[in-house]
Amino acid sequence: MPKFFSNKKLIILLITIVAMIGLIAVSINVKDRRNTPPVIQQIGNDAAGFASQVVAAPINSLHTGFTAMVNLVNTYQDNEQLKKQLDELDQVKETNATLKRENKDLKQQLKLNSTLTNYKKITAAVITRSPASWQNQVVINKGQVNGIVKNMPVMTGSGLLGRIVEVNKTNSKVELISTSNKNTNSFAIEVKTASGTYVNGIISGYNADKKELIISQLSSTDDIKKGNVVSTSGLGGLTPRGLYVGKVANIRKDNYGLTNSVYVKPAANINDFTVVTVINRSVEGN
Amino acid sequence: MTRITNNRLKWLIPIIWVVLFLLDGVISVTFQGWLFNYPWSVSIQAFLIGIVMTTYRFPEQRWLLWTALVIGLFYDSFYSGIIGYYTFLMPAAVLFVRWVTNYLPNSALFQATVYILVLIGLEFSLYILNGFFGASTDFALFITYNLGPTVAVNTVLFAALYYPYSKLLGKISV
């Protein structure tokens, strides 16, 4: 029986493990510091993105057909409910348009060209998702050529979904807010209390069990009640103000009983989306 | 094996492996509502099925090691952007399977057993490396939340892919 670990092989194994840990450490470092990965890596990622879309085409058409069938069954009920909401929506839309116009006029008078609430949208489709369960990362089909920049926030449907962590020429990676990665940047948010004041904090984690975001470092939690609206505050990074995150679901003491953590039910469905919107803030930031 | 067959293998195996590697992500995104829903989190490893089955069938093909390394490099760059995990773990899987074929006969059941062993080894290595680099979770949670469901789903995937994939390998190696 040949020995699996002879002396020479053991040395090679050791060197390989050291090389592996070194390479991972270096590439994490490079990823954090640079706005885009090295060109050669970008070319590889772009090629893989194209190939992935080819492989996905037959599976996507099957999936779309199946989803269409399921949707058809639910359509009648949805229709009834939506009809009721539609009447109210028209009124809201009208009010919104009037307020927008007024806001624009007022900004012009103040000679403010753009504030933290101004942004443009870039719509993108999800190509693929990292199979690694610890990662919570998806790849979208827009990149540098479409004006995507690292750290832009990403929305789906009505709520905040994540942020751009890597930009290639024609695709980019989005890290979802449900990530357990401790080294990632946090979102700055504000909670609007019943009295109309805003309390600032950051999204510090995700509770997979309850499907709720954990908000911490709030200046005070006294006025926060269940059902209060949470949105981004526009402080730091490239995030504009007023992106909807969700509603307060719970307020609990942390493990040490010292500070209160606020739990927020996200408006976005974090595990079910095919199209996302990348937000490009008009005000320059770092 | 003739030289023509060898050349054909050198062309086709990398292509099949690339398709399987892309399939990992496509399956993950198509069924993400189900795969990443609490109380489980499943990582699909179709690429690993390709590596284990191919190496089991052609242990004498030494170049499989380098193919696994190159595609592993693409895997890391495309999915996580952090190079080093699959780049080294996939060639390690090739080496392990090559070594194991000295002692085990070639049958569906043995291949499945080896695949599950390699899968558990891979998930453990990834867990340890992640703990080292920041994204750590509780060990008990990792076993119940990640490892168990991942092994279960991938065993089913292996059962589904075994027959067509071994037919395919048979076709290209005649």
UniProtKB/TrEMBL annotation, chain A:
Family under the similarity heading: Belongs to the MreC family.
Parts forming coiled coils: 72-109
Originating species: Agrilactobacillus yilanensis
InterPro entries attached to this UniProt entry: Cell/Rod_1, Cell/Rod_MreC_2, MreC, MreC_beta-barrel_core
Rod shape-determining protein MreC beta-barrel core domain ranges (all copies): 126-279
Protein name: Cell shape-determining protein MreC
Chain's role: Involved in formation and maintenance of cell shape.
Keywords of this entry: Cell shape, Coiled coil
From TrEMBL, chain B:
Chain ranges passing through the membrane: 12-32, 38-56, 63-88, 108-129, 141-165
Pfam families the UniProt entry points to: MreD (PF04093)
UniProt keyword annotations, A-Z: Cell membrane, Cell shape, Membrane, Transmembrane, Transmembrane helix
InterPro entries the record matches: Cell_shape_determining_MreD (IPR007227)
Compartment(s): Cell membrane
Membrane topology annotation: Multi-pass membrane protein
Keyword Chloroplast: no
Major place of residence: membrane
Family to which this protein belongs: Belongs to the MreD family.
NCBIfam families, per database record: shape_MreD
Name under which the protein is recorded: Rod shape-determining protein MreD
Organism the protein comes from: Agrilactobacillus yilanensis
